[in-house]
Amino acid sequence: MLDLVIKNGSVIDGTGAPRAVGDVGVAAGRIAAVGRVDERGGREIDATGLVVCPGFIDLHTHYDAQYTWDPYATSSIWHGVTTTVIGNCGFAIAPCRPPDRERTMRTLMKVEGMSLRAMQAGITWDFETFPEYLDHLERRNPSLNVAALLGHSAVRQWVMGPDAQHRVATPDEVAAMAGLVREAMATGAIGLGSSTAEAHVGDGGLPVPSRLADLAELRALTRAMGESGRGVFEITVGTKTTMEDLREIHRESGRPVIWAAFFHRDDRPEYTTTHLAYTDAFQREGVEVRPQVSCRPLTMDFTLHNPYPFEGMAAWKRVSARPEPEWARVYADPEFRAELKAELAAERFAVFRGRWDLVRVLKVGRPAHQASVGKTITQIAAETGKDEVDAWLDLALADGLETEFLAGLMNANDAVVGDLITHPYTLVSLSDAGAHCSLLCDAGYSTTLLGKWVREKQRLSLEHAVRRLTADPARAYRIPERGLLRPGFWADLVVLDPDTVEARPVEWVHDLPAGEPRFIARARGVEWSLVNGEPVLERGEIVDRPAGARPGRVLRAFDA
Known about the structure:
Blueprint lengths: L1 E10 L8 E8 L2 E6 L5 E6 L4 E4 L1 E3 L22 E6 L14 H12 L3 H7 L7 H11 L4 E7 H9 L10 H17 L3 E5 L19 H12 L5 E5 L6 H11 L3 E6 L6 H17 L3 E5 L4 E5 L14 H4 L6 H6 L1 H13 L12 E5 L13 H8 L3 H11 L5 E7 L3 H9 L4 E2 L16 H12 L5 H8 L1 H6 L16 E4 L5 E8 L8 E7 L1 E6 L2 E5 L2 E2 L18
Parallel strand pairs: 1-4, 1-5, 6-7, 7-8, 8-9, 9-10, 10-11, 11-12, 12-16
Antiparallel strand pairs: 1-2, 2-3, 5-17, 13-15, 14-15, 17-20, 18-19, 20-21, 21-22
């Protein structure tokens, strides 16, 4: 008798092949049979009218801290995700010495929008090194599979201390960092994560450590990774990192290079066409340099207590360098406003480009400003006769900085986004799950792809979309025996209703440690999810299990 049989489902195997009605049998955590399964199961699931497919692999999450208190990786678990990759953009909580813990958490608070109070209350620091952190995750026993990138910023801080955010590394320091890379690869890292993006600003307005690395350092660390014969290099790129740099890193290391974040900008449409052309040219050359793209528009909720979309701007250093009680004074300062206006007019900053017609008032703190709700800053500026920057800051100041804004930042053009997500060499990802919890929740990228882009827009077939969420990421990141419904592969499975699957609207909840709030997003139409043969989601609800009984694994072995 098999452990479990899923009967009468519409089976999509992850290869892109047409679906076929059949069964999937599971034994000892692996797929035992696909097609017609005559053996009985210790448990049987009737999937009539539903789709059965491989579990989804989310390549771009930030659950590094959250996994220490939340073994279920909410919100991802609701959306059919069965494997998560952490350590993206070089942000991690290991390696980390005890004196650096507060700095690490404050950096994550600033750059990834994580609650400092939640991290202070929730992280159990029984690790310092990266191998010890992997062991810690195994003891925490997650419900989903986890693969960890070694975080470049964490490595830099370990080797250089406070200097990591101020200068280029010496040759001896680079050699020490390379040693940590070799250790991580030997003990189970899936690769190395880094960032040179100007928007990544840490505590006190300082650049995150990896931004101070020069190209020589990046090449040395990726060569050290490549010595293992495996591993991927993930980097969130800024303006100082060129596509030619990434090509050279790939050629020297011999390893795949995955860059983020490839969003479409309406004000710079040539960026999209140019970088797709780079991607095609690299593939023709045999150069494995590929971008991560999103199937969702990039929007953020923010207040001027938490002004993430602007924190990478040069003008904003006036704000970041001061304690928060003094921010209102800076916002009112004419010199600060003039510098901000000049920078926006020069279009030097990638995250927010001065599109005040895409910034809308969601909520106000004081009844006197209720009439502004629903209006864009452009509309408010026209009504008040003010410059848009002045109209925005004046409203926030008059409202005690409690005004909540929604900014539409990128990926607003569905026609172009459709081109990005169907391109053969892009990777659909960028959920950022676990980060920016007070600004957004894009953990439902998988159900958005299946609902909006397959059912509603019919931009790609269900079979194609499943492949984009399963086999494509598994192959790109060299994750073995996952991503396909194939006998002998691990039984990471999703059972969903193709007629209803979608990401539901975000909810504001207070479920973080210390009662801190965050946005979450549940799914509709994801009925069952299995990890290594065990249900982690039943009829859309999380299966609660104690530590030691949860089926997820810390993945440590990867293909070359």
